[in-house]
Design a protein that fits this description.
The chain is α/β, with parallel strands linked by helices. The protein has two domains: 3-165, 3-Layer(aba) Sandwich (Rossmann fold), CATH 3.40.50; 199-329, Zinc Finger, Delta Prime, domain 3. The protein has helices spanning 3-17, 35-47, 67-73, 92-103, 124-135, 155-158, 171-178, 194-198, 200-219, 223-232, 236-251, 257-263, 288-307, 313-329, and strands spanning 24-28, 52-53, 60-61, 80-82, 112-116, 141-147, 162-165. Strands 4-5-6-1-7 form a five-stranded parallel sheet, sandwiched between helices. A two-stranded antiparallel ribbon has the order 2-3. The longest helix has 20 residues, at 200-219. It is elongated. Bound molecules: zinc ion (ZN). Zinc ion is lined by residues 48-50, 62-63, 66, 68-69. Keywords: DNA-directed DNA polymerase, Membrane, Nucleotidyltransferase, Transferase, Transmembrane, Transmembrane helix.
Length: 330
């Protein structure tokens, strides 16, 4: 468990041990903050019949051997429901599954547990349906909502949940905890870039994305590949915004372009942006005015994506790239 989650484990353990655990729990924080691992731990200590307290911090852990634990590990614990949705939204039908689940008696006579990751994907109608369930009297159910984006949740939902604000380490503290010191990751030592820092796979995706983006902006190539990444990768829009800020800074010499270029050179000695060896010219960035205007386009697009419930994201990202191209060709 990441270091910053321990304080939450401690608090939740105390509340659970004293029978004060809230029936609606909201774990919120930036992507990559470890909310789901915290949620999964909580599910297990709530359902375990012989929960252990085997450390001086008072943090509970599941025994992993009782009937409930064994069923949970087999994926067949009957009183636990995790509701995920492959589609863009969590709709009323998904919430009805929750209502139907909590209305039946618990098979093993303990609390029922419902986990709802990506709670921000609930439509307004779904959120309203969930409210009805939350308000049902005498409900012996623990509902755990997880969300990357608190602003997207209805206030009526958040106000009925006990909020646990998950804040990962940032800046120097993060670097120290990762024991990475003065590496290229310094550039990304910021909470919003966390998954790129802590997950090798996401880090590689970030490199790929950056390479496609630079190809597109500098050489007007790879629009299709960039569009695909924007549509497929959860983090892509945030990376896009981050890279434009970085480019703008490099124009003002806050971080020189050559330094940025060095950061993008991969371990194999190839430039991520062009496949060229380090030191090769990888082209010039547009002037700062153009970057600023592109940045505005990106921010506007992100706002639109966030504010509309059923916005056509694929259409918006394609339009964004066309707008950027038009801007670059001026
Ligand atoms: Zn157990």
């Amino acid at each position: 468990m990441q270091t910053w989650l321990v304080q939450h484990q401690k608090l939740l353990s105390q509340q659970l041990a004293q029978g004060r655990l809230a029936h609606a729990i909201l774990l919120a924080g930036v992507a990559g903050a470890g909310k789901l691992s915290l949620a999964n731990w909580l599910v297990q200590v709530v359902l375990c019949r012989q929960v252990q307290k085997n450390n001086d911090q008072g943090i509970l852990s599941p025994c992993n051997s009782c009937k409930a634990c064994r069923l949970y590990h087999q994926g067949s614990y009957p009183d636990f429901l995790s509701v995920t949705s492959d589609s863009k939204n969590i709709g009323v039908d998904d919430i009805r599954r929750i209502s139907a689940f909590v209305e039946t008696t618990a098979h093993l006579g303990k609390n029922k547990i419902v986990l709802l990751p990506m709670a921000e994907k609930m439509t307004t109608a779904a959120a309203n349906a969930l409210l009805k369930t939350l308000e049902e009297p005498g409900l012996s159910c623990v509902l755990i909502l997880v969300s990357d984006d608190l602003d997207m949740l209805l206030p009526t939902i958040t106000s009925r949940c006990r909020l646990y604000d998950i804040r990962p380490l940032s800046g120097q503290a993060l670097l120290e905890s990762l024991n990475r010191g003065q590496t290229q990751e310094n550039l990304f030592a910021n909470v919003s870039q966390l998954p790129e820092l802590t997950d090798e796979q996401v880090h590689e995706q970030f490199r790929q994305f950056t390479a496609r983006l630079l190809d597109f902006i500098i050489k007007r190539q790879n629009r299709g590949a960039l569009l695909a990444l924007l549509n497929e990768n959860t983090y892509a829009f945030r990376w896009l915004e981050y890279m434009l800020v970085t480019m703008a800074r490099s124009q003002y010499n806050w971080l020189s372009w050559s330094a940025l270029r060095v950061k993008l050179v991969t371990a194999e000695g190839k430039s991520a942006a062009t496949g060229a060896a380090p030191g090769d010219a990888i082209g010039q960035l547009p002037d700062s005015e153009t970057i600023w205007q592109i940045y505005q386009l990106v921010v506007g697009c992100i706002k639109q994506l966030k504010s509309m419930v059923q916005v056509n994201a694929a259409y918006l990202s394609e339009k964004l790239l066309v707008d950027i191209e038009t801007r670059l060709d001026k």
